[in-house]
Write a structure and sequence with these properties.
Helix 7 packs parallel to helix 10. Strands 7, 8, 9, 10, 11, 14, 15, 16 and 18 form a nine-stranded mixed sheet that branches. The chain folds into two domains: 4-167, Leucine Aminopeptidase, subunit E, domain 1 (3-Layer(aba) Sandwich); 194-504, Aminopeptidase (3-Layer(aba) Sandwich), CATH 3.40.630.10. The protein has 15 helices and 20 strands. It has 507 residues and is of the alpha/beta class. Ligand BES is lined by residues 281, 299, 356, 358-361, 385-389, 446, 452, 475.
Length: 507
Protein backbone atom coordinates (compact mmCIF):
# COMPACT_ATOMS: atom_id res chain seq x y z
CA UNK A 1 0.00 0.00 0.00
CA UNK A 2 1.57 3.22 -1.07
CA UNK A 3 -0.23 6.23 0.31
CA UNK A 4 0.89 9.66 -0.75
CA UNK A 5 1.25 12.00 2.21
CA UNK A 6 1.64 15.77 2.09
CA UNK A 7 1.84 18.52 4.66
CA UNK A 8 0.91 22.13 4.17
CA UNK A 9 -1.75 24.77 4.25
CA UNK A 10 -4.96 24.36 2.34
CA UNK A 11 -4.61 24.55 -1.41
CA UNK A 12 -6.95 24.62 -4.37
CA UNK A 13 -6.82 20.84 -4.34
CA UNK A 14 -9.01 20.96 -1.28
CA UNK A 15 -12.02 20.19 -3.44
CA UNK A 16 -10.47 16.86 -4.40
CA UNK A 17 -10.71 15.49 -0.87
CA UNK A 18 -13.57 13.05 -0.45
CA UNK A 19 -13.51 13.34 3.29
CA UNK A 20 -12.01 15.65 5.85
CA UNK A 21 -10.89 14.47 9.24
CA UNK A 22 -11.00 16.78 12.20
CA UNK A 23 -9.69 15.79 15.64
CA UNK A 24 -11.89 17.29 18.35
CA UNK A 25 -11.20 17.67 22.04
CA UNK A 26 -13.88 17.95 24.74
CA UNK A 27 -12.68 21.47 25.47
CA UNK A 28 -13.62 22.74 22.03
CA UNK A 29 -17.19 21.52 22.33
CA UNK A 30 -17.99 23.47 25.44
CA UNK A 31 -16.47 26.70 24.14
CA UNK A 32 -19.03 29.44 23.62
CA UNK A 33 -19.49 32.05 20.95
CA UNK A 34 -16.52 33.87 19.50
CA UNK A 35 -14.14 30.91 19.53
CA UNK A 36 -12.53 29.79 16.24
CA UNK A 37 -14.90 27.63 14.18
CA UNK A 38 -14.23 23.91 14.26
CA UNK A 39 -14.91 23.54 10.53
CA UNK A 40 -17.95 25.59 9.50
CA UNK A 41 -20.66 27.30 11.61
CA UNK A 42 -23.67 25.14 10.68
CA UNK A 43 -21.72 21.89 10.84
CA UNK A 44 -20.20 22.99 14.13
CA UNK A 45 -23.70 23.57 15.50
CA UNK A 46 -24.79 20.10 14.45
CA UNK A 47 -21.76 18.60 16.17
CA UNK A 48 -22.38 20.62 19.32
CA UNK A 49 -25.98 19.43 19.32
CA UNK A 50 -24.73 15.85 19.27
CA UNK A 51 -22.50 16.74 22.17
CA UNK A 52 -25.35 18.35 24.12
CA UNK A 53 -27.36 15.13 23.75
CA UNK A 54 -24.41 13.12 24.98
CA UNK A 55 -24.13 11.31 21.64
CA UNK A 56 -20.69 12.60 20.72
CA UNK A 57 -18.49 13.21 23.74
CA UNK A 58 -15.16 13.50 21.96
CA UNK A 59 -13.92 10.47 23.88
CA UNK A 60 -10.76 8.86 22.55
CA UNK A 61 -11.50 6.88 19.36
CA UNK A 62 -15.10 8.14 19.22
CA UNK A 63 -16.11 9.01 15.68
CA UNK A 64 -18.97 11.12 14.32
CA UNK A 65 -19.35 11.16 10.55
CA UNK A 66 -21.38 13.99 9.01
CA UNK A 67 -22.41 14.52 5.41
CA UNK A 68 -21.72 18.14 4.52
CA UNK A 69 -24.57 18.53 1.98
CA UNK A 70 -22.84 21.33 0.11
CA UNK A 71 -21.84 23.31 3.19
CA UNK A 72 -18.23 22.25 2.85
CA UNK A 73 -16.05 21.24 -0.13
CA UNK A 74 -15.66 17.58 0.95
CA UNK A 75 -18.65 15.22 1.01
CA UNK A 76 -18.07 14.07 4.58
CA UNK A 77 -16.45 15.31 7.72
CA UNK A 78 -15.15 12.72 10.11
CA UNK A 79 -14.92 14.08 13.65
CA UNK A 80 -12.65 12.04 15.86
CA UNK A 81 -12.45 12.42 19.61
CA UNK A 82 -8.96 13.18 20.79
CA UNK A 83 -7.34 13.75 24.15
CA UNK A 84 -4.68 16.44 23.82
CA UNK A 85 -2.82 15.12 26.85
CA UNK A 86 -2.40 11.62 25.42
CA UNK A 87 0.80 12.31 23.45
CA UNK A 88 1.93 10.16 20.55
CA UNK A 89 -0.28 7.22 21.55
CA UNK A 90 -3.33 9.51 21.55
CA UNK A 91 -2.53 10.74 18.06
CA UNK A 92 -1.85 7.23 16.76
CA UNK A 93 -5.16 6.08 18.23
CA UNK A 94 -7.10 9.02 16.79
CA UNK A 95 -5.60 8.44 13.35
CA UNK A 96 -6.47 4.74 13.56
CA UNK A 97 -10.09 5.55 14.44
CA UNK A 98 -10.21 8.00 11.53
CA UNK A 99 -8.78 5.37 9.17
CA UNK A 100 -11.55 2.92 9.98
CA UNK A 101 -14.17 5.58 9.26
CA UNK A 102 -12.48 6.39 5.94
CA UNK A 103 -12.60 2.75 5.00
CA UNK A 104 -16.37 2.66 5.66
CA UNK A 105 -16.81 5.79 3.55
CA UNK A 106 -14.48 4.41 0.89
CA UNK A 107 -12.79 7.79 0.91
CA UNK A 108 -9.43 7.47 -0.86
CA UNK A 109 -8.38 11.10 -0.94
CA UNK A 110 -8.55 12.83 2.39
CA UNK A 111 -7.49 15.84 4.34
CA UNK A 112 -6.62 15.79 7.99
CA UNK A 113 -7.18 19.15 9.61
CA UNK A 114 -4.75 19.96 12.36
CA UNK A 115 -6.20 22.56 14.71
CA UNK A 116 -3.82 24.66 16.79
CA UNK A 117 -4.98 22.91 19.93
CA UNK A 118 -3.80 19.55 18.61
CA UNK A 119 -0.58 20.92 17.19
CA UNK A 120 0.37 23.00 20.20
CA UNK A 121 -0.45 20.17 22.59
CA UNK A 122 1.49 17.67 20.50
CA UNK A 123 4.46 19.92 19.85
CA UNK A 124 4.79 20.79 23.50
CA UNK A 125 4.89 17.15 24.60
CA UNK A 126 6.41 15.19 21.72
CA UNK A 127 7.46 17.61 18.97
CA UNK A 128 6.28 17.96 15.38
CA UNK A 129 8.25 15.03 13.97
CA UNK A 130 6.90 12.46 16.40
CA UNK A 131 3.38 13.86 16.02
CA UNK A 132 3.59 13.37 12.25
CA UNK A 133 5.04 9.90 12.69
CA UNK A 134 2.34 8.82 15.13
CA UNK A 135 -0.47 10.01 12.84
CA UNK A 136 1.05 8.30 9.81
CA UNK A 137 1.55 5.06 11.73
CA UNK A 138 -2.01 5.13 13.06
CA UNK A 139 -3.46 5.39 9.56
CA UNK A 140 -1.25 2.79 7.91
CA UNK A 141 -1.37 0.27 10.76
CA UNK A 142 -5.15 0.43 11.19
CA UNK A 143 -5.77 -0.07 7.48
CA UNK A 144 -3.60 -3.14 7.12
CA UNK A 145 -5.63 -6.32 6.65
CA UNK A 146 -4.83 -9.98 6.29
CA UNK A 147 -4.83 -10.96 2.63
CA UNK A 148 -7.05 -14.04 2.48
CA UNK A 149 -6.33 -16.76 -0.03
CA UNK A 150 -9.56 -17.03 -2.01
CA UNK A 151 -10.54 -18.06 -5.49
CA UNK A 152 -12.09 -14.66 -6.12
CA UNK A 153 -10.12 -11.72 -4.76
CA UNK A 154 -12.55 -9.24 -3.24
CA UNK A 155 -12.05 -5.53 -3.83
CA UNK A 156 -9.93 -3.90 -1.23
CA UNK A 157 -10.08 -0.38 0.06
CA UNK A 158 -6.88 1.54 -0.51
CA UNK A 159 -6.18 4.95 0.89
CA UNK A 160 -4.46 7.01 -1.80
CA UNK A 161 -3.82 10.57 -0.67
CA UNK A 162 -3.56 12.12 2.74
CA UNK A 163 -3.00 15.84 3.14
CA UNK A 164 -2.19 17.09 6.62
CA UNK A 165 -3.52 20.63 6.78
CA UNK A 166 -2.73 22.91 9.74
CA UNK A 167 -5.78 25.07 10.46
CA UNK A 168 -3.98 27.90 12.21
CA UNK A 169 -1.76 30.01 9.99
CA UNK A 170 1.32 30.38 12.16
CA UNK A 171 2.74 26.87 12.35
CA UNK A 172 2.84 25.66 8.76
CA UNK A 173 6.14 26.77 7.27
CA UNK A 174 8.54 26.29 10.14
CA UNK A 175 7.42 22.71 10.79
CA UNK A 176 7.26 21.45 7.24
CA UNK A 177 10.61 19.62 7.24
CA UNK A 178 9.91 18.02 10.60
CA UNK A 179 6.54 16.85 9.32
CA UNK A 180 8.05 15.43 6.19
CA UNK A 181 10.63 13.39 8.07
CA UNK A 182 8.00 12.28 10.60
CA UNK A 183 5.77 11.10 7.77
CA UNK A 184 8.68 9.22 6.17
CA UNK A 185 9.52 7.50 9.46
CA UNK A 186 5.89 6.64 10.11
CA UNK A 187 5.67 5.00 6.69
CA UNK A 188 8.85 3.03 7.28
CA UNK A 189 7.89 1.86 10.76
CA UNK A 190 4.43 0.84 9.53
CA UNK A 191 6.04 -1.11 6.70
CA UNK A 192 8.15 -3.01 9.22
CA UNK A 193 5.11 -3.81 11.37
CA UNK A 194 2.99 -4.80 8.38
CA UNK A 195 5.76 -7.06 7.07
CA UNK A 196 5.79 -8.83 10.45
CA UNK A 197 1.99 -9.14 10.34
CA UNK A 198 1.97 -10.53 6.81
CA UNK A 199 4.58 -13.16 7.64
CA UNK A 200 2.76 -14.14 10.83
CA UNK A 201 -0.61 -14.41 9.09
CA UNK A 202 0.77 -16.86 6.52
CA UNK A 203 -0.63 -20.37 6.97
CA UNK A 204 1.75 -23.02 8.27
CA UNK A 205 1.80 -24.93 4.98
CA UNK A 206 3.02 -21.78 3.20
CA UNK A 207 5.52 -20.81 5.85
CA UNK A 208 7.80 -23.70 6.72
CA UNK A 209 11.22 -23.01 8.27
CA UNK A 210 12.75 -23.14 4.79
CA UNK A 211 10.22 -20.63 3.48
CA UNK A 212 10.83 -18.31 6.43
CA UNK A 213 14.55 -18.48 5.62
CA UNK A 214 13.71 -17.66 2.01
CA UNK A 215 11.77 -14.55 3.09
CA UNK A 216 14.70 -13.51 5.29
CA UNK A 217 17.10 -14.01 2.36
CA UNK A 218 14.94 -11.90 0.07
CA UNK A 219 14.88 -9.12 2.63
CA UNK A 220 18.62 -9.32 3.28
CA UNK A 221 19.32 -9.17 -0.44
CA UNK A 222 17.13 -6.09 -0.91
CA UNK A 223 18.81 -4.32 1.99
CA UNK A 224 22.30 -5.56 1.19
CA UNK A 225 22.69 -7.29 4.55
CA UNK A 226 24.86 -10.32 5.18
CA UNK A 227 22.85 -13.47 5.96
CA UNK A 228 23.67 -17.05 6.95
CA UNK A 229 21.02 -19.74 6.68
CA UNK A 230 22.19 -22.77 8.60
CA UNK A 231 20.52 -25.98 7.40
CA UNK A 232 20.02 -29.18 9.41
CA UNK A 233 23.43 -30.54 8.37
CA UNK A 234 25.42 -27.46 9.42
CA UNK A 235 23.26 -27.21 12.53
CA UNK A 236 24.36 -30.75 13.38
CA UNK A 237 28.01 -29.78 12.85
CA UNK A 238 27.47 -26.84 15.17
CA UNK A 239 25.75 -29.12 17.72
CA UNK A 240 22.48 -27.22 17.81
CA UNK A 241 20.73 -29.94 19.77
CA UNK A 242 17.80 -27.76 20.83
CA UNK A 243 16.91 -26.61 17.33
CA UNK A 244 17.43 -30.08 15.83
CA UNK A 245 15.52 -31.79 18.63
CA UNK A 246 12.44 -29.63 18.14
CA UNK A 247 12.65 -29.91 14.36
CA UNK A 248 13.22 -33.64 14.13
CA UNK A 249 9.54 -34.61 14.23
CA UNK A 250 8.74 -32.77 11.04
CA UNK A 251 9.33 -33.48 7.37
CA UNK A 252 10.12 -29.74 7.08
CA UNK A 253 13.65 -29.39 8.42
CA UNK A 254 14.65 -26.59 10.82
CA UNK A 255 16.87 -23.62 10.01
CA UNK A 256 18.99 -21.19 12.00
CA UNK A 257 18.86 -17.80 10.29
CA UNK A 258 21.50 -15.20 11.13
CA UNK A 259 21.42 -11.68 9.69
CA UNK A 260 24.33 -9.35 10.28
CA UNK A 261 23.94 -5.59 10.25
CA UNK A 262 27.23 -3.76 10.73
CA UNK A 263 26.52 -0.07 11.23
CA UNK A 264 29.59 0.49 13.39
CA UNK A 265 32.39 -1.83 12.25
CA UNK A 266 34.89 -0.21 14.63
CA UNK A 267 32.89 -1.22 17.69
CA UNK A 268 32.98 -4.52 19.57
CA UNK A 269 29.44 -3.96 20.79
CA UNK A 270 26.60 -5.74 19.00
CA UNK A 271 22.95 -6.22 19.81
CA UNK A 272 21.70 -9.77 19.55
CA UNK A 273 18.02 -9.88 18.60
CA UNK A 274 16.65 -13.40 18.79
CA UNK A 275 13.13 -14.23 17.57
CA UNK A 276 11.24 -17.48 18.16
CA UNK A 277 10.42 -18.93 14.76
CA UNK A 278 8.16 -21.95 15.33
CA UNK A 279 6.27 -21.95 12.04
CA UNK A 280 3.60 -24.19 13.58
CA UNK A 281 3.32 -25.49 17.11
CA UNK A 282 1.21 -28.63 17.48
CA UNK A 283 2.81 -29.25 20.87
CA UNK A 284 4.58 -32.32 19.46
CA UNK A 285 4.10 -35.59 21.37
CA UNK A 286 2.67 -33.50 24.24
CA UNK A 287 -0.01 -32.58 21.71
CA UNK A 288 -2.10 -29.44 22.17
CA UNK A 289 -5.89 -29.68 22.23
CA UNK A 290 -7.59 -29.13 18.90
CA UNK A 291 -9.57 -26.02 19.85
CA UNK A 292 -7.78 -22.88 18.70
CA UNK A 293 -4.73 -24.76 17.51
CA UNK A 294 -4.88 -22.92 14.17
CA UNK A 295 -3.64 -19.82 16.01
CA UNK A 296 -0.31 -21.56 16.40
CA UNK A 297 0.59 -20.28 12.92
CA UNK A 298 1.53 -17.19 14.94
CA UNK A 299 4.22 -19.04 16.91
CA UNK A 300 6.82 -17.33 14.73
CA UNK A 301 5.60 -13.87 15.80
CA UNK A 302 8.91 -13.23 17.56
CA UNK A 303 10.85 -14.08 14.39
CA UNK A 304 8.54 -11.80 12.42
CA UNK A 305 9.10 -8.95 14.90
CA UNK A 306 12.87 -9.30 14.52
CA UNK A 307 12.63 -9.38 10.71
CA UNK A 308 10.25 -6.40 10.66
CA UNK A 309 12.64 -4.42 12.84
CA UNK A 310 15.66 -5.47 10.74
CA UNK A 311 13.93 -4.21 7.60
CA UNK A 312 13.62 -0.74 9.15
CA UNK A 313 17.11 -0.85 10.68
CA UNK A 314 18.48 -1.81 7.27
CA UNK A 315 16.77 1.24 5.76
CA UNK A 316 17.64 3.76 8.47
CA UNK A 317 21.24 2.52 8.81
CA UNK A 318 21.99 3.56 12.40
CA UNK A 319 25.65 3.47 13.51
CA UNK A 320 25.29 0.34 15.59
CA UNK A 321 25.84 -3.41 15.10
CA UNK A 322 23.01 -5.92 15.17
CA UNK A 323 23.04 -9.70 14.90
CA UNK A 324 19.53 -10.98 14.27
CA UNK A 325 19.04 -14.66 14.96
CA UNK A 326 15.98 -16.69 14.08
CA UNK A 327 15.87 -20.32 15.14
CA UNK A 328 13.01 -21.77 13.13
CA UNK A 329 11.39 -25.20 13.25
CA UNK A 330 8.02 -26.92 13.01
CA UNK A 331 6.94 -28.68 16.20
CA UNK A 332 5.25 -31.92 15.13
CA UNK A 333 4.44 -35.28 16.69
CA UNK A 334 5.78 -38.25 14.74
CA UNK A 335 7.72 -41.47 15.16
CA UNK A 336 10.92 -39.49 15.06
CA UNK A 337 9.81 -36.60 17.27
CA UNK A 338 11.42 -35.91 20.65
CA UNK A 339 9.57 -37.47 23.59
CA UNK A 340 9.17 -36.62 27.25
CA UNK A 341 12.14 -38.16 29.05
CA UNK A 342 14.57 -37.52 26.21
CA UNK A 343 17.69 -35.56 27.07
CA UNK A 344 19.05 -33.06 24.53
CA UNK A 345 22.55 -31.63 24.41
CA UNK A 346 22.31 -27.98 23.44
CA UNK A 347 24.77 -25.93 21.36
CA UNK A 348 26.17 -24.45 24.60
CA UNK A 349 26.96 -27.97 25.87
CA UNK A 350 24.25 -27.82 28.56
CA UNK A 351 21.87 -30.76 28.69
CA UNK A 352 18.10 -30.53 28.93
CA UNK A 353 15.59 -33.12 30.04
CA UNK A 354 12.41 -32.88 27.99
CA UNK A 355 9.39 -33.11 30.26
CA UNK A 356 6.93 -31.51 27.85
CA UNK A 357 7.52 -31.32 24.11
CA UNK A 358 5.15 -28.34 23.97
CA UNK A 359 7.76 -26.24 25.79
CA UNK A 360 9.72 -26.11 22.52
CA UNK A 361 10.30 -22.37 22.12
CA UNK A 362 12.88 -22.18 24.89
CA UNK A 363 14.79 -25.09 23.31
CA UNK A 364 15.25 -23.39 19.96
CA UNK A 365 15.85 -20.02 21.63
CA UNK A 366 18.60 -21.44 23.82
CA UNK A 367 20.55 -22.35 20.66
CA UNK A 368 19.53 -18.98 19.22
CA UNK A 369 21.19 -17.15 22.12
CA UNK A 370 24.31 -19.29 21.82
CA UNK A 371 24.42 -18.60 18.07
CA UNK A 372 24.12 -14.84 18.69
CA UNK A 373 26.90 -14.99 21.28
CA UNK A 374 29.26 -17.02 19.07
CA UNK A 375 28.67 -14.42 16.32
CA UNK A 376 29.68 -11.60 18.66
CA UNK A 377 26.51 -10.31 20.35
CA UNK A 378 27.25 -8.46 23.60
CA UNK A 379 23.66 -7.81 24.77
CA UNK A 380 20.63 -9.91 24.05
CA UNK A 381 16.94 -9.32 23.52
CA UNK A 382 14.73 -12.27 22.68
CA UNK A 383 11.14 -12.00 21.48
CA UNK A 384 8.93 -15.06 21.71
CA UNK A 385 5.36 -16.33 21.85
CA UNK A 386 6.61 -18.42 24.74
CA UNK A 387 3.85 -19.15 27.25
CA UNK A 388 0.08 -19.27 27.53
CA UNK A 389 0.71 -18.24 31.13
CA UNK A 390 1.63 -14.69 30.08
CA UNK A 391 -1.94 -14.18 28.85
CA UNK A 392 -3.28 -15.48 32.14
CA UNK A 393 -1.17 -12.85 33.91
CA UNK A 394 -1.44 -9.87 31.56
CA UNK A 395 -4.12 -10.69 28.99
CA UNK A 396 -3.61 -9.06 25.63
CA UNK A 397 -2.71 -5.69 27.15
CA UNK A 398 0.99 -6.08 27.77
CA UNK A 399 4.03 -8.08 26.76
CA UNK A 400 5.70 -9.83 29.71
CA UNK A 401 9.40 -9.30 30.37
CA UNK A 402 12.06 -11.22 32.27
CA UNK A 403 15.62 -9.94 32.58
CA UNK A 404 18.98 -10.45 34.25
CA UNK A 405 19.96 -6.81 33.80
CA UNK A 406 17.88 -3.89 35.13
CA UNK A 407 19.77 -1.31 33.10
CA UNK A 408 19.11 -3.03 29.79
CA UNK A 409 15.51 -3.62 30.78
CA UNK A 410 15.08 0.11 31.42
CA UNK A 411 16.31 0.82 27.90
CA UNK A 412 13.85 -1.67 26.43
CA UNK A 413 11.07 -0.22 28.54
CA UNK A 414 11.88 3.34 27.46
CA UNK A 415 11.85 2.18 23.84
CA UNK A 416 8.46 0.52 24.34
CA UNK A 417 7.06 3.70 25.83
CA UNK A 418 8.19 5.70 22.81
CA UNK A 419 6.58 3.08 20.58
CA UNK A 420 3.35 2.98 22.58
CA UNK A 421 3.68 -0.78 23.17
CA UNK A 422 3.25 -1.94 26.75
CA UNK A 423 5.80 -4.14 28.51
CA UNK A 424 5.44 -5.38 32.09
CA UNK A 425 8.39 -6.81 33.97
CA UNK A 426 7.96 -10.00 35.99
CA UNK A 427 10.21 -10.84 38.94
CA UNK A 428 13.17 -13.13 38.32
CA UNK A 429 13.97 -14.20 41.90
CA UNK A 430 16.66 -16.89 41.93
CA UNK A 431 14.29 -19.26 43.78
CA UNK A 432 12.21 -19.67 40.61
CA UNK A 433 15.10 -21.45 38.96
CA UNK A 434 14.65 -24.40 41.32
CA UNK A 435 11.54 -25.26 39.32
CA UNK A 436 13.60 -26.11 36.24
CA UNK A 437 16.26 -28.23 37.97
CA UNK A 438 16.44 -31.76 36.66
CA UNK A 439 17.66 -35.09 38.05
CA UNK A 440 18.59 -36.21 34.56
CA UNK A 441 20.28 -33.15 33.06
CA UNK A 442 21.41 -29.56 33.71
CA UNK A 443 17.85 -28.29 33.29
CA UNK A 444 14.38 -29.52 32.43
CA UNK A 445 12.33 -27.70 29.84
CA UNK A 446 9.25 -27.01 31.94
CA UNK A 447 8.85 -25.85 35.50
CA UNK A 448 5.15 -26.64 35.62
CA UNK A 449 2.15 -24.32 35.71
CA UNK A 450 3.17 -22.01 38.53
CA UNK A 451 5.02 -18.89 37.35
CA UNK A 452 5.20 -20.44 33.90
CA UNK A 453 6.23 -17.24 32.15
CA UNK A 454 9.04 -16.58 34.62
CA UNK A 455 10.47 -20.10 34.60
CA UNK A 456 10.23 -20.17 30.79
CA UNK A 457 12.12 -16.89 30.66
CA UNK A 458 14.73 -18.01 33.17
CA UNK A 459 15.35 -21.16 31.15
CA UNK A 460 16.30 -18.98 28.18
CA UNK A 461 18.34 -16.65 30.41
CA UNK A 462 20.43 -19.65 31.47
CA UNK A 463 21.95 -19.54 27.97
CA UNK A 464 22.88 -15.82 28.08
CA UNK A 465 26.36 -16.63 29.48
CA UNK A 466 26.01 -13.74 31.92
CA UNK A 467 25.52 -11.14 29.18
CA UNK A 468 22.83 -8.48 29.66
CA UNK A 469 19.58 -10.06 28.46
CA UNK A 470 15.90 -9.19 28.22
CA UNK A 471 13.19 -11.69 27.30
CA UNK A 472 9.90 -10.46 25.85
CA UNK A 473 7.00 -12.93 25.98
CA UNK A 474 4.51 -11.86 23.32
CA UNK A 475 2.23 -14.92 23.52
CA UNK A 476 -0.63 -12.66 24.68
CA UNK A 477 0.06 -9.69 22.40
CA UNK A 478 1.16 -11.13 19.04
CA UNK A 479 -2.31 -12.25 17.97
CA UNK A 480 -5.74 -10.68 18.51
CA UNK A 481 -9.22 -12.18 18.12
CA UNK A 482 -10.63 -8.79 17.15
CA UNK A 483 -9.01 -5.56 16.10
CA UNK A 484 -8.49 -2.64 18.46
CA UNK A 485 -6.97 0.80 17.97
CA UNK A 486 -4.20 0.58 15.40
CA UNK A 487 -3.90 -3.19 15.79
CA UNK A 488 -5.76 -5.38 13.34
CA UNK A 489 -7.16 -8.81 14.17
CA UNK A 490 -4.85 -11.73 13.67
CA UNK A 491 -1.15 -10.89 13.75
CA UNK A 492 -0.32 -7.56 15.43
CA UNK A 493 3.38 -7.17 14.61
CA UNK A 494 3.90 -6.25 18.25
CA UNK A 495 7.43 -5.29 19.36
CA UNK A 496 8.62 -4.32 15.88
CA UNK A 497 8.47 -0.63 16.76
CA UNK A 498 9.90 -1.20 20.24
CA UNK A 499 12.91 -3.02 18.77
CA UNK A 500 13.43 -0.24 16.22
CA UNK A 501 13.25 2.43 18.92
CA UNK A 502 15.69 0.44 21.01
CA UNK A 503 18.28 0.08 18.25
CA UNK A 504 17.85 3.30 16.32
CA UNK A 505 17.62 5.70 19.23
CA UNK A 506 20.47 4.21 21.11
CA UNK A 507 23.56 6.29 21.72
N1 LIG B 1 3.60 -21.43 21.59
C1 LIG B 1 3.18 -21.80 22.88
C2 LIG B 1 2.72 -20.63 23.72
C3 LIG B 1 1.47 -19.93 23.25
C4 LIG B 1 0.25 -20.27 23.77
C5 LIG B 1 1.54 -18.90 22.34
C6 LIG B 1 -0.89 -19.60 23.36
C7 LIG B 1 0.41 -18.23 21.91
C8 LIG B 1 -0.81 -18.58 22.43
C9 LIG B 1 4.34 -22.47 23.62
O1 LIG B 1 5.23 -23.19 22.83
C10 LIG B 1 3.76 -23.43 24.59
O2 LIG B 1 3.14 -24.37 24.16
N2 LIG B 1 3.99 -23.19 25.87
C11 LIG B 1 3.50 -24.06 26.89
C12 LIG B 1 4.59 -24.19 27.92
C13 LIG B 1 4.34 -25.28 28.94
C14 LIG B 1 4.28 -26.63 28.27
C15 LIG B 1 5.44 -25.22 29.95
C16 LIG B 1 2.25 -23.44 27.48
O3 LIG B 1 2.18 -22.22 27.60
O4 LIG B 1 1.34 -24.18 27.80
MN1 LIG C 1 4.54 -25.15 22.48
ZN1 LIG D 1 5.36 -22.58 20.86
Amino acid sequence: MSVQFTYGTRSTEQAAAEAVIRFVSKKELVQGEGAMPIVQPQIDDALKAQYAKGLFKADAEQVEVMPTLGLYPAAHIVFVGHDEEAGASGLRLAAAAAAKALKKLRAEKVQILLPDAVLEGAYASIGAERAAQALTEGLLLALHVRQPLKREQSERFTLKEVAFVPQGAAVAAEHATLWESGIAKGKLYAEGVNLARDLTNLPGNDLTPERLAYHAEEMARELDLEIEVIDEWSAAEQRMGGLLGVGQGSINPPRMIVIHYKGNPGSEEAWGLIGKGITFDTGGISLKRAEGMQEMISDMGGAAAVLGAMRVIGELKPAINVIAVIPTAENMPSDRAIKPGDVLRMMSGHTVEIVNTDAEGRLVLADGLTTAITRGATKLVDVATLTGAVSVALGTQATGAVTNHEELFKQVQAASERAGERIWQLPAYPEYKKQIKSDAADLKNSGGRYAGTITGGLFIGHFAEGLPWVHLDIAGTAWLESSRGWETKGATGVMVRTLIELIVHHE
